[in-house]
């Protein structure tokens, strides 16, 4: 059944109450905040409290944490659920069986963005930082816009905003949307500008094969509006099959691309570089976040901003002021902030994301040993990509693996973090979370005098350990 049929676009303005099942998800919370900003009454369910749900509660959004049909609003005009919620969820079943308008987050985004100029950023990795950079460039430069992001922008401490623009040359009613490939959600969007950062295999529990996932990205490119623009990373597999009437490519330093970086330097922990565009060179751009891959993300964002006519000075100023995204190469203890230990936290949960993360850290701190604590995310991803995880984690001087975070999945026989450890060349420790905290406190913290880089990485709940680890490292 086509659930979207319950809410034709002409009725969106009539919605007065929305209920979210899985409201604590980073993408779901952005849509919840959108409705709240419109004056709609918003409430929701999530499995466990998190800092994100607590922030929403503090903002006046009621959230509860048990499946309980006695606590759900019976007057809800719209029910939004995440595909990560089981189909047998009692609240979801109740709403479906009683004829409510029940839709996915992607359906809402499809409707919300139908009337806007849409910049949609897709990719198996890189999309959160790139979409946040684009949204910040628009906001900081005066072009304005609405942002639906998959991460917390450090500049604004939120994953959603809607800001009026004052640049008469910029398109009106701009939406920047992180276009999620999971569950084929991004195929419901209609971009005016689409960005594709990567097409590496992922979500094979959904797509089955890498080829099927690549085809989804090709289908996404075909959804670009007539006369729209595709900005894609140079060298993508099946790049020739991507569809757009206008197209620009970008790269870190491949001069065959339409946009690339030149003259890259590291100065006081920041990057200085020039951006070579098709008909312009933007000199002395400063990016104050780590990782060479983030220079490449910045090139994509700058390409989009330049295509919209935003001035060089405005772009340069906005990139300089960009403070990054929470859990994207986030310095928990920056250089000199941890008595010889640099502590970085990152959401990386795919081998290529880990490769960029570890490579970036080793490039910035080449003389300091690098320890990576990784929490694999999903049994299916661990099974499908174990060889890649093992290869990339061998880039670190020391690796520690936590148990797999299951998220929406049930255990798969024989699939554990040991599967990765057994494929690695270098010795690897397997630890429970409590063991890790004790190891940090009693062993790793003693290495502060020798200079160390510690990275925690993963898309599960490893971030709940970050503050505790930080406290132990600050007190040594």
Architecture overview:
The longest helix has 16 residues, at about 290-305. Helix 5 packs across helix 8 (about 290-305), helix 5 (about 125-140) crosses helix 9 (about 310-320) and helix 10 packs parallel to helix 11 (about 380-395). This protein starts with 16 loop residues before the first strand and ends with a helix. The protein has 14 helices and 21 strands. A seven-stranded mixed β-sheet has the order 8-7-9-6-10-11-12, with helices on both faces. The protein has a six-stranded mixed β-sheet with strand order 16-17-21-18-19-20, with helices on both faces. It is about 30% helix and about 25% strand. It is globular and about 60 Å long. Helix 11 (about 380-395) links the parallel strand 18 and strand 19. The chain has helices spanning about 25-35, 50-60, 90-95, 105-110, 125-140, 205, 210-220, 290-305, 310-320, 350-365, 380-395, 420-425, 435-440, 465-475; strands at about 15-20, 40-45, 60-65, 80, 100-105, 115-120, 145-155, 160-165, 175-180, 195, 230-235, 245-250, 260-265, 270-275, 280-285, 330-335, 340-345, 370-375, 400, 430, 450-455. With about 475 residues, it is α/β, with parallel strands linked by helices.
């Amino acid at each position: 059944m086509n659930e979207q049929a319950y809410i034709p676009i002409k009725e969106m303005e009539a919605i007065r109450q929305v209920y979210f099942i899985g409201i604590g998800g980073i993408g779901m919370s952005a849509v919840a905040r959108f409705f709240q900003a419109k004056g709609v009454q918003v409430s929701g369910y999530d499995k466990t409290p998190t800092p994100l749900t607590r922030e929403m509660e503090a903002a006046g959004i009621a959230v509860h944490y048990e499946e309980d049909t006695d606590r759900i609003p019976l007057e809800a005009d719209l029910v939004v659920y995440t595909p990560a919620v089981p189909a047998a969820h009692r609240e979801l079943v109740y709403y479906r069986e009683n004829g409510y308008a029940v839709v996915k987050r992607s359906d809402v985004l499809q409707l919300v963005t139908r009337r806007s100029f849409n910049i949609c950023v897709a990719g198996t990795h890189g999309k959160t930082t790139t979409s946040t950079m684009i949204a910040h460039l628009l906001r900081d430069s005066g072009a304005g816009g609405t942002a639906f992001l998959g991460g917390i922008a450090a500049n604004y401490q939120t994953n959603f905003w809607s800001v009026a623009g004052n640049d008469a040359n910029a398109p009106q009613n701009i939406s920047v949307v992180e276009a999620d490939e999971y569950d084929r959600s991004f195929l419901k969007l209609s971009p005016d500008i689409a960005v594709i950062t990567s097409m590496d295999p992922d979500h094979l529990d959904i797509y089955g094969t890498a080829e099927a996932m690549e085809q989804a990205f090709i289908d996404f490119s075909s959804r670009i509006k007539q006369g729209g623009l595709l900005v894609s990373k140079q060298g993508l597999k099946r790049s020739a099959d991507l569809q757009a009437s206008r197209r620009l490519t970008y790269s870190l330093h491949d001069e065959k691309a339409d946009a690339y970086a030149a003259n890259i330097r590291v100065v006081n922990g920041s990057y200085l570089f020039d951006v070579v565009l098709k008909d312009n060179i933007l000199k002395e751009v400063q990016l104050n976040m780590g990782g060479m891959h983030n220079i490449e993300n910045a090139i994509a964002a700058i390409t989009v901003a330049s295509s919209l006519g935003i001035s060089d000075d405005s772009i340069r100023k906005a990139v300089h002021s960009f403070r990054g995204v929470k859990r994207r190469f986030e310095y928990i203890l920056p250089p000199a902030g941890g008595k010889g230990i640099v502590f970085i936290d990152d959401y990386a949960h795919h081998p290529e994301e880990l490769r960029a993360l570890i490579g970036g850290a080793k490039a910035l701190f080449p003389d300091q040993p690098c320890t990576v604590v990784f929490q694999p995310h999903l049994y299916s991803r661990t099974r499908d990509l174990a060889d890649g995880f093992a290869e990339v984690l061998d880039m670190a001087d020391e690796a520690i693996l936590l148990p797999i975070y299951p998220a929406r999945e049930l255990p798969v026989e024989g699939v554990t973090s040991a599967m990765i450890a057994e494929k690695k060349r270098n010795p690897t420790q397997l630890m429970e979370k409590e063991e890790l905290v004790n190891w940090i406190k009693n062993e790793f913290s003693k290495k502060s005098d020798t200079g160390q880089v510690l990275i925690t990485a993963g898309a599960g709940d490893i971030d709940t350990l970050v503050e505790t680890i930080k406290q132990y490292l600050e007190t040594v």
